[in-house]
Amino acid sequence: MAHPLSRRHVLSLGGATLILTGIPAASYAAAVVEVDLVVYGATSAGIVAAVQARRMGRTAVVIEPGTHLGGLSTGGLGMTDSGVKESIGGIAGEFYRRIHAKYAGTPVTPTSPARFTFEPHVARAVFDDLLSAAGVPVYYSIRLSTVTRAGSRITEVAADNGQVFRAPMFMDCSYEGDLMDRAGVAWTSGREANSAYGETINGVQLRDKHQFTLPVSPYRTAGDPASGLLPGIAATVAPNGTADTRIQAYNFRMCLTQAAGRIPFPRPAGYDAADYELLWRYIQAGYTGPFFTTHSVGGGKTDSNNNGAFSTDHIGGNYSYPTASYAARDAIFAEHRRYQQGLMWFLANDSRLPAAIRSATASWGLAADEFTTTGGWPPQLYVREARRMVSAYVMTEHDCRRNVTAADPVGMASYTMDSHNCQRVVVDGLVKNEGDVQIGIPGAYPISYRSIVPSSGQCTNLAVPVCLSASHIAYGSIRMEPVFMILAQSAATAAILATDAAVSLQQLSYPALAARLRADGQILQWPIPTPGEVILDNAASSGVTRAGTWLSSTSISGFYGPDYEHDNNTAKGVNRLRFTPALPAAGAYTVYLRWTSHTNRASNVPVDVVHSGGITTRTVDQRVSGGQWVSLGSYSFSAGSAGSVLLRTENTNGYVIADAVRFVAG
């Protein structure tokens, strides 16, 4: 995409390309560049991080090892995997409002609608606007040579062109985690065993999604094991839940169109129809498609993704990618492009295929007005996961399911726990895909600040909001572009606040960070509290007192927070639990109680509401109305902690549940 010189200037510096946005070139063209924040990776996260630093009045640069700006958000992923859209705040939310404004031709405002489907060039235009308004320089073709540390701090990073970047704070916003690795921060790759974190859907997972549903032989000569296996197929599969080093498959998110001016799918150099033998056999067995998705993003174009047992995912082609050199990654990129272009050529042209499949595929082509410098082909490989940091807080399946709740949230995630297939295996003489997991979650959940900064002592001035600390399956939920932007803004905010306070990222006051994040529109709690609303969960660290014995459980759904508690249907009259909220102001509040329902619950639970006028006792039936806020009435309360709600168990006829209370002013 062209960059008008009236808006910005482009310089070439020893092989690096620098885009200057309103900042004198001499300040950044030097051999040594010094700023307040150096951001590695011009992904959507990297852009947002630098913009946030500039909005906080500090200088920042983005250094990018490649030549593409915007990562997947401008690289073909135009149908945003957003989950609970209302939980997307801050600059991420602004980005999607700016997308809508671009299409509508209207100014963007804090109340503008958001749009989550878009053409790649529109996303690029929005990022250009953000960078230009903030005055953020972007350096391209900056590949790390050395990372220098003094004790636990990075002092500078040097590029292979000899240029040096210095700052008090650094951020790794790449999909690969190279800066994190060079800085000596602990990381992992591949899949943990379920036993590592007490999970249920990590490790090897032989399941039914994107699976061969018709019999296909894995052998070079169909049906003959003695002929050997076709390339890319493993002879056996480990038990579900077993750890390994495999990662979920990569592909390109193609921007396709059926417009008359579309670019036909090219036949790549090195094309070999034998690479698609499994697909040919699947079609012979009776499979008729679909072979890829065609989700509309506007302008008559699509965001096209993997779909089915044999599609655009190059399963097994990426195992070495996370730790590969830049040159080796370039080769992996090229191989993925050859594979996927060859697939589309095969589907559109191979004379053995039914005419209906060939004509349906050939009715699509690459959009001629997208990715114009690469022939309509996406310049960004979909790196679904690479390295993942291992820090003081590892996000796991338990966070995704809200069985645990981070006490130091810096943003929300809400997408399905999603892993694409990781390998092809032989099961009972037939080929099967392994690794695809698609498990829903209850709703938006918080991401811990400790998961985006290294463990204390490893590196004190580096934040890692993309390759954050998470298990393989939790990362499958977190790894969405809106979440990366959210976490990057929070990380940049932390970096600037820590610099101002002269403390490490690990020592930064979380209440101070949270206050600034909320002021900047970040969402740190879900559901979002309404004005005058106070919710107190049974798992809260203060405000909940117990008598007798209460047991934690998650066996019945509909609870608020990470769990609920019950009296085990014993010690009636002895077991009691009191919620004592801290109310911000005196006045009338409607009081709500929440529980989970079951036939074994008590139908006659006495609940004492302690208010300014005395004590009012209500009786609730916990066999019904579970998973919702049930009103106990409206009462007057003093400010502070004079009021409370007491659950009693005397003479109750079943399990008594304590989950959460809610006070709503007015």
Record keyword descriptors for this entry.
666 residues; alpha+beta; FAD/NAD(P)-binding domain; Jelly Rolls; 7-stranded mixed sheet; 20% helix; metal-binding; oxidoreductase activity
What order do the helices and strands come in, and which of them pair?
Layout: E1 9-13, E2 16-20, E3 32-34, E4 37-40, H1 44-55, E5 60-63, H2 90-104, H3 120-134, E6 138-140, E7 144-150, E8 153-159, E9 164-166, E10 169-172, H4 178-182, E11 187-188, H5 194-197, E12 219-221, E13 224-229, E14 233-234, E15 256-257, H6 277-284, E16 295-298, E17 301-303, H7 326-349, H8 355-362, E18 365-366, E19 388-389, H9 397-400, E20 409-413, E21 417-419, E22 423-427, E23 430-434, E24 437-439, E25 445-448, E26 462-463, H10 472-478, H11 481-501, H12 510-519, E27 533-537, E28 544-547, E29 551-553, E30 564-566, E31 576-579, E32 587-594, E33 605-611, E34 614-620, E35 630-637, E36 644-647, E37 657-658, E38 660-665
Parallel strand pairs: 3-9, 4-5, 4-10, 5-6, 10-26, 14-22
Antiparallel strand pairs: 1-2, 2-6, 7-8, 8-9, 11-19, 12-13, 15-18, 16-17, 20-25, 21-24, 22-23, 27-38, 28-31, 29-30, 30-37, 31-36, 32-35, 32-38, 33-34, 33-36
Helix pairs in contact: 1-3, 1-11, 2-3, 2-11, 7-8, 11-12
